[in-house]
Amino acid sequence: QTVLRSSDTHPDGYPTVEAVKRFGELLSDKTDGRYSVEVFHSAQLGQEADTIEQTQFGVIDLNRISIGAFGTQVPAATVTQLPYIFRSTEHFHNVLDGPIGDEILAAFEAVDVIALAYYDGGARSFYNSQKPINTLADMEGMKFRVMGSDVFVDMVAALGGNATPMPYGEVYSGIQTGVIDGAENNYPSFDTAGHAEVAQYYSLNEHLMVPEVLVVSKIVWDGMTPEDQAAMREAAKESVTYQRELWAAKEVESKAAVEALGVTINEVDKAPFIEAMKPVYEKYVTDPMLQDLVARIQATEG
Amino acid sequence: MKNGLLAASRVFSAISTAALWLAGVGLVAMTSLVAYQVFMRYVINSSPSWTEAASIQIMSWFIFLGAAVGVREKFHMGFDVLLYALPDSARPWLRSVSDVAMFGFGFGMVWFGGELAIRGASVRIPVLGMPQTITYLPIVVSGALICLFVLERMTLRLAGEPVDTETTERAISEV
Amino acid sequence: MEYWVLFGVFGGLMFVGTPIAFCLGIASLATIIYLGRPPVVVFQQLNSGVSAFTLMAIPFFIFAGDLMMRGGIAARIIAFAGSIIGHVRGGLGQVNIVASTLFGGISGSAVAEAAAVGGIMIPQMKARGYGADYAVNVTSMSALIALLLPPSHNMIIYSLSGGGRISIADLFTAGIIPGLLLALVLMITAYIVARRRGYPTEPFPGFARAAQFFVISIPGLMLIAIIFGGVRSGIFTATESSCIAVIYAFLVTLLVYRSMDWSNFVHCVIGAVRTTAMVLFIIGAAASFGWLMAYMRVAPMLTEMVTQLTSDPLMVLLLINVLLLLLGTFMDMGPLIIITTPIFLPMVSSFGVDPVHFGVIMILNLGIGLNTPPLGPVQFVAAAVGKISIWAAMRSVWPFYIAGIIVLGLVTYIPALSLWLPSLFR
Ligand code: NA
Ligand code: NA
């Protein structure tokens, strides 16, 4: 009877948290109760970078995390953080559910974690307090807070905006007072962080679809029998369907919530945005392995 | 023997002062960096992406250097009720317990901080691009200094020096 | 059993006088070893506990406070307060409180305030026939106003201890009315005590002279406007405003008052480094301790225990207030905020108390503890400046204590006192 401790930065009830709970139930069923899962939500055990280290050292057992938090540690995984690498949700699912997805999961073993499955994290778009963004010209000179990552900083620069570093907790008042014009995120985070109250324009440019990933510590994995390992992989895959349903429902719910707050949502012609990403790709996709991977993702249907 | 101890103590004193001054330079550097960040964003309208991460690194250095100096200068805050309640002869014994505990923690900072630093060699700090190792170095250095300063005090105590009797003014701070 | 290791080692070491940061760190280390998990996490949290940009406000505000005290900004504010309120009965007591309120609007440290205002006011009050105990008590209680009025780095510590999602701007704004209320209640108390003791009044120096004092203190007082205006108009964030406060205080004392020289500056820097290192090292060690409390699920367990005792939020707040007052007697403010917020905040939140409101309650409550021996640093400073013993100060402090407790009661049971002002900015 082993209780596996799992970290999540999202609050209780969030699709990823609920999916890992479901994963725990499935795992318990499949292993006759030898393994169960306890989820520590709301970043109780630390922010993403911290919990990755904890999983690697075997302090905690499981971790649900955004692939972006691995930074450049897993080179193959960095391609999923390239702006506009995925064309649509369908394309996103086709790539991750196919051989390319398995190939990227396998690459995590090099950093002492076993990646089990991908969850949906939705598409991220820009929101701001000034005006709807329709064209690249609208981005000119606007200050956006982005996550601390070179790709995102370069992406905003390539779009003509100003990437501004700022702790996440200060974004609300930062937009309110005008230190920054806006930030970027998916519908659910835009809603739950309360940013919709101060940033009344959400423009669906959908620059990123970063997959969430469920990983288990290699130390735990190596201590499991092959049957239990298989059961774990199976349970993870089965929890994915459930998470995608919850996620789709959550997006609809959050969209309605921000609209109720008076947010103006506008569609964006993405072609010029995609075109503007050329220099970013040239800077980050230099390795032949990555170039091949990008080509194969782009060739995938959907 | 005794002269040797006091000479060593003078060296430690110099190390401690150097660490304190380095920490002071860090505080001034951090002030300049954050001011530069505000200036670049508000006046020039072009935010440097590295200032936030860099100033956090500097802060971590001056906190851990200062914390080690605090062990020697005894400005860390404690709850000294038992020291007043018990006779003066109990003081060296209580202080020895604390010193052993502090040595243990300092050793942990070196050992486990070192483990984190080694693993960090293959991870880059986003935006700064430097290896994560430098994030954990302040802990390792501070731990080593803490061990050194605690050993100095324990040795002086065993040699009969009045390390526990002097009433150094404790830094008063309600924080 | 692991609970005994965590809290037992912490309590045991604390009892023998080990510095608090090490009590927290060693207790965490012992527990993780007992649990058989890799100890690296203790040192990872020690580091990430101090690696937040928002934390920078602590060194900056401490640094700025030192510069203002040594650079004569405080002295000029006191002269101004004297010219406007000295003519009331027990005038210098009133001056003391008004000066504390003005200085509190630019400093966040009650100790700095007791030292700055007390250092100038207490000798003057004694010379004019006021009891030394009265002077000390007025100084030490009115110093607490600095904690409530923005800027207040204790509120930043609270926000971070609460998980970093509580808006610092809201906390700052929420403290204004309680801070002014405390000033008002203390002024009334000081007036009543002064009447009973028959203390003198000061002559009114005339509007021209008052205006002159005002003009001289403007460069210092401008800091309030700069911090507030700067944050509210989006020039810088609440955290960055602390850095601007340093730069501004430095420039005013160097260029306008010409009281800042190299040796003064070095004193300020080294002093700020010592205080900051001590405080932030505790914050780092408390992050390790907090990580273990989360891992062992201490907070939900305690909440369940309290829920079985009572389900009335008013009772829960009363219980917590009494507990904090007791703890505040023995421990210092910063460490207590850091240690108790992760336990109490989820508890009161589950009873529907607003986190911003609870922050104000906690700061005022622990502030009162700063005036209670055995660990009462603000009272120590005031008594030292007044050259009287702690016991002499204690004997006649009760009217001022009662005033403080009344304000605490009002702040606890009338949430609007804290929450109305921030709601205006929403
Ligand atoms: Na203040
Ligand atoms: Na106290």
Automatic annotation (TrEMBL), chain B:
Protein name as annotated: TRAP transporter small permease protein
Keyword annotations: Cell inner membrane, Cell membrane, Membrane, Transmembrane, Transmembrane helix, Transport
Organism: Devosia marina
Membrane topology, as annotated: Multi-pass membrane protein
Chief location bin: membrane
InterPro entries, per database record: DctQ (IPR055348), TRAP_DctQ (IPR007387)
TM ranges: 12-34, 54-71, 92-113, 133-151
Keyword Cell inner membrane applies: yes
Localization terms from the record: Cell inner membrane
GO molecular function, one term: transmembrane transporter activity
Gene Ontology BP annotations: C4-dicarboxylate transport
Cleavable signal peptide: none
Entry similarity comment: Belongs to the TRAP transporter small permease family.
UniProt entry tagged with the keyword Transcription regulation: no
Known role: Part of the tripartite ATP-independent periplasmic (TRAP) transport system.
Pfam family, one: DctQ
Highest taxon listed in the record's lineage: Bacteria
Domain Tripartite ATP-independent periplasmic transporters DctQ component span(s) in chain numbering: 30-157
Subunit structure: The complex comprises the extracytoplasmic solute receptor protein and the two transmembrane proteins.
TrEMBL record, chain C:
A Pfam family that the UniProt record links to this protein: DctM
Residue span, TRAP C4-dicarboxylate transport system permease DctM subunit domain: 8-417
Cellular localisation: Cell inner membrane
Keywords: Cell inner membrane, Cell membrane, Membrane, Transmembrane, Transmembrane helix, Transport
Organism superkingdom: Bacteria
Membrane association type: Multi-pass membrane protein
An annotated GO cellular component: plasma membrane
A molecular function (GO) term: transmembrane transporter activity
Annotated TM spans: 7-34, 46-64, 73-92, 98-122, 134-151, 171-194, 206-228, 234-257, 269-294, 314-331, 374-393, 400-421
UniProt xrefs under InterPro entries: DctM, TRAP_DctM
Function text: Part of the tripartite ATP-independent periplasmic (TRAP) transport system.
NCBIfam families according to UniProt: dctM
Quaternary context: The complex comprises the extracytoplasmic solute receptor protein and the two transmembrane proteins.
Family: Belongs to the TRAP transporter large permease family.
Name of this chain's protein: TRAP transporter large permease protein
Gene source species: Devosia marina
Species lineage: Bacteria, Pseudomonadati, Pseudomonadota, Alphaproteobacteria, Hyphomicrobiales
